[in-house]
Amino acid sequence: MSKTQPAAYSPVHIFLHWVIAALIVFQLVFGESIKDLGRALRDTGAPDTLTTVMGNAHIWVGVTVLVLTLLRLLIRARFGVPAPVPASRIQELAARVVHGLLYLLMIVVPITGLLAWYGGIREAGDLHELAKPLFIILILLHVAGALYHHFALKDRTMKRMITSRI
Ligand code: HEM
Ligand code: HEM
Asked: Is residue 147 within 8 Å of 157, Cβ to Cβ?
């Protein structure tokens, strides 16, 4: 964390938040594609073009999520993030826990995927699949929290993840 806490998220942090979010939704929606590729490679050794493209997309989009997340955490550590919008202590704690778990999954999920695909480690694949419902639950909680701030509390939480202007 930088010595002086910034008043807003930086444009880069905001940009990375939305790009990574879109890539993760893509991964969760099309996660089956890499299983189809694995099956086709095992069964016929010659997957069709769509299966190959979508299976490889899963790998490259996943690696992109990992790289961008590490970059985002570096930027976060170097420049800091604004203080939480004032809320009850329990709400602040809930947001912090959900954000922490999301960051954890954004790193652990691609790594377990790589270990399963390239290392053939079954347990890593099991963990990777187990993360799917966990990821979905956390994202739903996170989005519900953001919408609650925006529509019920009518505070700046949502606005500050859209623009750096104060
Ligand atoms: C944020 C990144 C990622 C997300 C959200 C994600 C998500 C998913 C999902 C939803 C599935 C299907 C699980 C199911 O049907 O139960 C899956 C399967 C799989 N993914 Fe990923 N994935 C990511 C990154 C990666 C990466 C980088 C690789 C590396 C090659 C990878 C390799 C795999 C493999 C091998 C499977 C099949 C697992 C098995 O059959 O045991 N994933 N992933
Ligand atoms: C789909 C995947 C998503 C992931 C993985 C994700 C992850 C995160 C993380 C880790 C943070 C903490 C930022 C930090 O302090 O460094 C954050 C902040 C935020 N996210 Fe998301 N997010 C996602 C989707 C969304 C969506 C769809 C919305 C809006 C409906 C949203 C709204 C926000 C807002 C408003 C903040 C700022 C919270 C604050 O300043 O206290 N996010 N997100």
From this structure: no
Count of CB atoms situated within 10 Å of the CB of 110: 21
Residue-wise pLDDT for 34-89, tens only, equals 999 999 999 999 999 999 999 999 999 999 999 999 999 999 999 999 999 988 99
Query: Which helix (H) or strand (E) covers residue 84, if one does?
Result: none
C-alpha pair distances (Å), 132 with each of 28, 61, 126, 137? 7, 16, 10, 9
104: helix, strand or coil: helix
Per-residue pLDDT band for 3 (boundaries 50, 70, 90) equals low
Rounded to an integer, what distance in angstroms lies between the CA atom of residue 10 and that of residue 76?
9
Q: Which atom of ligand 2 is nearest to the CA of 25?
A: 1
C-alpha 42 to ligand 1 mean position (Å): 17
Ligand 2 centroid from CA 120, angstroms: 33
105 CB within 6 A, ligand 2: no
pTM as predicted? 0.95
